[in-house]
Specification:
two-stranded antiparallel ribbon, 57% helix
Length: 102
């Protein structure tokens, strides 16, 4: 999840710099249209697709794993907060030893 935020911030800064340097190439009314389209195409759309991919890849861990019923599991980041590790289908950070009910 942090990777999505990091890439979004980098994309947004690079896009703003590009638009800033290109603002004199377009008329003002076209500049705003181009800016809005560029922000959607290069920032918002990749964020939505990346988040959807993240949720699809981790759906099984969130719903069907031992970690999903533990009080140390952070569902939004798919993270074991006790060990600061990401569980997967084949990896449980505590191996079930420190599991605690919600």
């Amino acid at each position: 999840m942090g990777e999505i935020v990091y890439k979004t911030l980098i994309r947004f800064v690079l896009l703003l710099l590009t638009l800033w340097f290109c603002k004199n190439l377009f008329d003002e009314k076209f500049f705003w249209i181009i800016s809005i389209l560029a922000i959607y195409l290069f920032v918002f759309h990749p964020v939505f697709t990346s988040y959807k991919k993240f949720v699809d890849e981790n759906k099984n861990v969130i719903t069907n794993s031992l970690c999903s019923t533990c009080k140390h599991f952070n569902e939004s980041a798919v993270l074991c907060t006790k060990y600061d590790k990401h569980p997967t289908d084949n990896f449980i950070p505590c191996e079930g030893a420190d599991w605690e009910s919600i």
